[in-house]
Amino acid sequence: MSQTAPIANALESAARLPEFIGACELPTPWATFRLHGFVDPDSGKEHLAITLGELDDSAPVLARVHSECLTGDALFSQRCDCGAQLEEALRRIATEGRGIVLYLRQEGRGVGLANKIRAYQLQDAGADTVEANEQLGFPADMRDYAVCAPLLKHFGVQRLRLMTNNPAKVSALQAAGMQVIERQPILAGHNTANQRYLETKAARLGHLFAAGTGGAPTS
Ligand SMILES: Nc1nc2c(ncn2[C@@H]2O[C@H](COP(=O)(O)OP(=O)(O)OP(=O)(O)O)[C@@H](O)[C@H]2O)c(=O)[nH]1
Ligand SMILES: [Zn+2]
Question: What single string gives the DSSP state of each residue in 174-186?
Answer without folding.
Answer: HHTT-EEEEEE--
